[in-house]
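Posting this for the archive.
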Amino acid sequence: MPTENKIKTLEELKSLRNTWANNNNKVVFTNGCFDILHLGHIDYLEKSAALGNKLIIGLNTDASVSKLKGPSRPVNNEYARARLLAALAFVDAVVLFGEPTPLNLIETISPDILVKGDDYAIEDIVGGRHVLENGGEVKTVSLVQGFSTTDIIKKIKHED
């Protein structure tokens, strides 16, 4: 399947989610900007995917990344970021969202497992309450230290 086909609208994803649920697949959801894909991202997403059968990534739109990270971000546009994520074998779907948080996505998809990095406290994870109230789980996975997009950008800017 072409990687582009893994990029879904919310409506397409709702239908796909129902199909996966009917086939007893455990759906994992996580989200982020994923501006410059690096080892930290790959490790985090791979660990997230291992918690279930299907991994959905909520990807911040360009406008929402700029609001979160500043006017010089994102480095890569949303289509490029979505295609890179979709190319990962353990990613089953990518959906863009422009709201300040992925709460609407989480409430619409109702994943079985909601995942964030261990830099979050479980009780602070957006959408966690909804997932727990619907019988799901909220988990954190350990992050690879020393990798962040912001640090990579700083390093690039300081090289001659």
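The beta strands are 7-8, 27-32, 54-60, 93-97, 113-117, 137-141. The chain has seven helices and six strands.
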